[in-house]
Amino acid sequence: MKSNFTSTIAGATVLLAGVGIISRGLGFFREVAFASYYGLTTEFDLYLIGVVIPVTINTIVLFIAQNIFVPLYHKYKSDDSANYFLYQQLRIFLFISLLIFIFLFILSKTIITSYQPDIDLVSKQIVNSIFRLSIISIPLSSLNSICIVYLQAKYDFKNGAISQLFLNVVIIIAVIILSSTFSIYAVPLGYVVGTLLQSIYLVKKSKINLVSIFKFSTLIKPIIPLPIKSLIIIAAIESTGQLYMLLDRFFFLQVDSGGIASINYAQNIFFLPMQIFSIALTTAIFPKLSELYSNELFDKFESIINKSLHVIVVIFIPTTIVLFFWGDLIIKLFYERGKFLATDSSMTFQVLQMLTLSLFCYSIYAVLNKIFYTVNQNGLLLIITIVGIFVKLFFNMILVGPLSQGGLALSTTITYIYFFVVSLLVLKIKKIYFPDSKLFFISLSIIINSVVSLVIVTFIFASISNHSTFISLIMLLTFVGLFTINLYLYDKDIFSRVILLK
Description:
Layout: H1 9-37, H2 42-77, H3 82-106, H4 108-115, H5 121-134, H6 137-153, H7 158-163, H8 165-182, H9 186-206, H10 210-213, H11 216-219, H12 228-241, H13 244-249, H14 259-294, H15 298-335, H16 342-356, H17 359-374, H18 378-403, H19 405-429, H20 437-460, H21 469-490, H22 494-500
């Protein structure tokens, strides 16, 4: 392994965050294209219903691959079985994904009918066509998942992150060029083609020989034993954890027209800082946590967790303030054009505010989740996740009536807070991880800084009654500037510690 900056936790995090900014920037261009060409229309709602199962499966496969492959790769690397283990996983994942594709294609109409029994026949046909087109991506995404986690296990975070750019670029091009001809079908078509290009790039960069996957001489070799129990549990955890979008889609007929689309647009903004910082950080630390725990270096193991949470506290508390008070500005700047109207911005902002209440908690849970996997407490995580689904479903049913799509967003927030609180308590009770007491005081100081900066901004602009887009932007930039200055004044070393994880 090359000893360079991008192989370190700090370097990998910076790299992934940088690529994440580019990727999410392209993602926003993609969402801007969606908003401009489709808006909060029923047509786009139907696309979100049709694509949710294939996208959910692809996400589940990636997480399963990551949480199974990375720890075992480090184990087999010590006895030179790592390369054979890689090709075994490729065969297993491709075979299973092909079976899933065939199953979903044959039963697509039955699945759509059972999933959305009350929608009209024309809408059901549109959903079914989008569904069948989207599931072509499942075998390709399965191959991509193994390639990505293989590169991560070798501390190569760059190529896996870069490969994510293909999807957004191709989807944007497809929407712009093909939407007039293929209407909403341009989006799943772009998704499949983008996934294919991603596969070509990843296979080349990981130096995997696709022919070797199907060689008879390798097929008859003994299979390296997998922890079947852990595999089943991880599959159950990730499958359960990805059901939230599916649960929201069930309430399609109980929300306002465009309600499901508004949740989608709001979630894209909500997950933006998660994608750039939190997920980048957890992706970078997971191989290191696995390595340290395997070597019983528990002090360093806990130190990395505390430093990672320190980074999250500094970033996500002020980010919560920004999204809650200036989320409408962000929505207008990115979405409000074409078919996306001012009323659509208002609906989406109400949903975003509900989601933002849990941003800080969910960003910390992203780290806690990796701790469970690292210390082989998958059973506990499964229980927590299953209970979370019932929490989500329960509050969906209670809140969707009075709050419509806002109720679905609020139920998600309640579920994310539940994950944070229960996971932290379980890790503490099991004596797996004890949060550093300094984190509490750091969090408190960041909250005070955020509130003080917000009050000052409100006071400065109190005399201006009409907050135009320009004035709102100046207020946002003033808040960020005040917060950053205050942060530096009471802790001059904060930026070096956050950036370098010192």
